[in-house]
Each structure stands twice: as C-alpha cells, then as structure tokens.
Design brief:
With 407 residues, the protein is an alpha/beta fold. It folds into two domains: 2-46 and 337-372, Urease, subunit C, domain 1 (Roll), CATH 2.30.40.10; 49-329, TIM Barrel (Alpha-Beta Barrel). Helices cover 41% and strands 23% of the residues. The protein has helices at residues 69-86, 89-103, 117-127, 146-160, 180-193, 206-215, 219-226, 243-249, 260-265, 273-278, 295-305, 314-329, 356-363, 387-406; strands spanning 2-12, 15-24, 28-33, 41-45, 47-52, 107-114, 130-135, 166-168, 197-201, 233-237, 254-258, 282-285, 344-349, 364-371, 374-378, 381-382. The strands form three sheets. It has an eight-stranded mixed beta sheet. The chain has a four-stranded parallel beta sheet with strand order 5-6-7-8. It has a four-stranded parallel beta sheet with strand order 9-10-11-12. It is globular. The chain starts with a strand and ends with a helix.
C-alpha cells in the first residue's frame, strides 16, 4: 500500500478534507485522518486534458504570431506535420517533451489527436500516463484520402487493443476536411467496432458556413446526420455552436473540450461555457496547442476570459479538469474516493492555503504524481525519464524545427 498525505485533500471541487492521507494500491483503498501534516501540502485527483496535440508541442509558440486558425495551419502546422510523417521518431521526442509539461501541471490522462500515434503511445507508456489516442482523419491536407487515414486509425486500434492505460478513438478532424458522407462513415465504423470519436466542431464560424453552403445543413442537422450521439464523443472547441445544436449536444455520450488558450491566441472567439453548463452539457478542458502545455494555465486563462460572459469559478473549472474529464474518457469519476483509480497528485504550495482549490491552481507545484498507483513524478521530476534524455530529445527537436520553419 502507498500513502499520500495532505493538510488538505480535495475530494472533489466542492469537498475538501483537512489533515488526511489517501491510502491506495491500483485503486484508492481508504482515506484516513492523520495529525502533524505539513501546512503546505494538498492532495488532489489528477487532471485530464481531453483535447491535445502532443506532436505540435515544438511549434506551440507560433500561436503568438496571432494568425487566425486557417492561416496558422497553412503556415506552421502542415509543414511540421509533413515532417513528422517523414520522420516519425520526432513524434516520440515531441510527445515526451509535451507530456512532461502536462504531468508537471497535474495531468494524468491525455486525449491526443495527431499522427504517428503508435509512437505517441510509446511516449505515454514511457512516462506512465493514461492516453486516449486518435488519428487526425482527413481526406485532404496531410492525408491523400479518407481510406488512408481511416486505415491508419483502425490499425492503431488493433495494435493497442488491450494495452494497459491506453484506449483508441477514431478522429474525424472537422467537417471542412471530410465530406459529409466521409464523416458519417467514420462515425458508423466507430459505432460498429465499439470505440469513441474525437473531433473538432465549430472551432471557427467557417465550420457552420461551410456546412450550409455545401450541404444545406445547419450544425444541428450535421451532428444528427453523422450520429455523434451514438458513440462516446469528445467535441473539441465548440466555440460557435447555436442554440439548436446545443440541444443535440446535451447528451450523456458527448463532452465539449474547452481550450481557452488556443482559442484566444488563434482569435477563434470565446465559447459561451456558462450557457453550455446551464443546458446540462458536459464541458471538460483541453490544452490543445498551448504555449505552456499546462492545465493550470488553462484554468488561469479561463477565469478572466469568462468574466462578464457568464463568470466561471475556480471550482467549476477544477471540476471540468478532473471529474468531467475523467468521466468523458470513461476511466472513473475523477474524484478522490474509495474504489476509484489511484490517479493522485501531491502538491506543495508557496502560500498558506485560504481556499485549497484556488490555491492549488494559483500557487501549486507538483511534488508527486501517481497513475493507477504507480509513481511517475518524484520530487517534482519525472521518475522514468532522465534529465539527460530530456536534453537530448529537446536538442533533436530543436534542430529539426529550425530546418522546417526556415525551409
């Protein structure tokens, strides 16, 4: 049995226990009171980033060019992704670097959509993090056809079936990179083989404009036609959803991944999250492509972003990052409670805790991280990847990145 103790144990965003230890093996066995616990310690459940592009970590600072989404994709994303497909070992290096940032912000589960996901799986297992992996399925852009992309995703599902800590979804990228029938085919295949969907919808206004111009369909019609309610679905972004589409998305199979930093820097707009929550739509958080790949920064960005737009509080966002995120991935409740998977984080604070939930986000530093009871961070450092390895991986990525961006 392992034991992690905190002056405050955040059972959920809305329940905190003082002076308690969490006892666990692979699952949480009990929570017991204890005396003389250091004042600066807090225990929480791990966070889930339910929309992430680990392979884009090396180009994360290009978001500061303030280009709009399509311009940014053409200038930076596709050139880098073409390089990744030619030299897939870069996906491993990029993923390790990105995962290290995420884990040191308390993330223990990552839903990733990109290419070379079999190699990304190796990186996740090396660090010891949970992963939900999908190929970015498109019939134009990086892939030449739907069949090529779909077969890559199906091969990934076959390869990783039964692998501990990992699951596979199908990843139809967006309605603008697949025809209506192609998108529906991907969802039908996911339904047939019993896996989930990870997609982008309504990140920018052009999504709805395109559907109406090309097919005469509103967002609601599109969502119903392709059948997203039939499978467990992560909808990334959802910034420009109208009232009718929200009615369809208020379904227990569907979770919206709110990505505050990337939506802001790409000038996508501000998703009206308060109205989504008021309609009982599930909303989790995703790092997407963030300059810092930190879940703490996503929460801190969201607080001022939503002021005056149906304010969101630290507790609601903490709940989105833990309970909603974990439920979306189907790996438990995301709470510190008996019987739940032991994905546990020990934090130290720089300040005395006045409100533990807020203070973890503002002042917290990760000391230890456990995934399914296994320690993957010790004394604020990755337990399974050495600093020398990290240095070598960063150097390799930097060399290729310079060549790619100056080509």
């Amino acid at each position: 049995m392992k034991k992690v103790c905190g002056k405050y144990t955040i059972v959920s965003a809305y329940e905190v226990v003082e002076d308690a230890c969490v006892i666990f093996d692979e699952k949480i066995v009990r929570i017991e009171k204890e005396r003389d616990i250091p004042e600066d310690t807090v225990v929480t459940h791990g966070f889930a980033s339910i929309h992430t592009h680990l392979g884009l970590y090396p180009i994360r600072t290009t978001l500061n060019s303030y280009l709009k989404l399509d311009e940014w994709v053409l200038k930076y994303v596709w050139p880098w992704e073409r390089l990744l497909r030619r030299e897939p070992e870069l996906s491993y290096a990029s993923a390790i670097l990105a995962i290290s940032e995420l884990v040191l912000s308390g993330v223990t589960a990552i839903a990733d959509m990109h290419f070379n996901e079999d190699i990304v799986a190796e990186a996740l297992l090396r660090v010891g993090v949970r992963g939900s992996l999908s190929i970015a399925i498109m019939s134009k852009g990086i892939y030449s056809s739907l069949d090529e992309a779909l077969q890559d995703n199906l091969e990934l599902a076959r390869k990783l079936r039964g692998v501990d800590l990992l699951e596979v979804r199908l990843g139809p990228t967006t309605p603008r990179l697949l025809t209506l029938e192609e998108f529906k085919k991907v969802v039908d295949v996911a339904t047939e083989i019993g896996v989930g969907i990870h997609t982008h919808i309504a990140e920018v206004p052009e999504d709805a404009i395109y559907l109406e111009r090309e097919y005469g369909k509103k967002l609601k019609d599109f969502i119903e036609y392709v059948g997203l309610q039939k499978v467990n679905t992560i909808v990334a972004h959802g910034v420009w959803l109208d009232s009718d589409s929200l009615d369809v998305l208020a379904h227990p199979n569907i979770t919206i991944a709110h990505c505050p930093s990337s939506n802001t820097l790409l000038r996508d707009g501000v998703a009206p999250i308060r109205s989504y929550l008021n309609r009982n739509i599930r909303v989790g958080l995703g790092v997407d492509v963030s300059p810092t790949y930190s879940m703490l920064d996503e929460i801190k960005t969201a607080i001022p972003l939503h002021l005056g737009r149906g304010d969101l509080g630290f507790k609601e966002l903490f709940n989105a990052a833990t309970s909603t995120g974990y439920r979306a991935l189907g790996v438990g409740s995301g709470l510190i409670e008996v019987g739940e998977t032991a994905d546990v984080v020990l934090w130290s604070l720089n300040e005395p805790a006045l409100d533990p939930v807020t203070d973890v986000v503002v002042f917290g530093r990760v000391s230890e991280v456990y995934v399914r009871g296994e320690k993957i961070v010790e004394n604020g450092r990755l337990a399974r990847v050495t600093s020398n390895e990290m240095k070598e991986l960063r150097g390799d990525v930097t060399r290729h990145l310079k060549k790619c961006l100056t080509a």
